[in-house]
Amino acid sequence: MSQYEKKHALIQKAIQNCQADIELVAITEDNRFAGIHGGRLKSFVVSPYCNAAYTWCSSTGSIMDRGGLDGISEPYRFVDDVIGGQLELKI
Q: Taking phi first (over 0 means left), then psi (-120 to 50 degrees means alpha), and beta for anything else, what does residue 35 get?
């Protein structure tokens, strides 16, 4: 499993378990990601641990809302580019 696939799985699990209504758009090599929340493109940080100081938290991870984004640029990579492309190569 690639680094991006691991980050994608961590983020998706945290979004689901925190019941955060976020549509994942792009990820980085570290624990940051971009997503749509409340109709706005925003930056987030995910942690695999429960952290009550974050915006959303659960026993399987936490998400911090870092505010709005004007667009997607480095170091963010679109999920479809890094996950979808890797899945196509496996076929």
A: beta
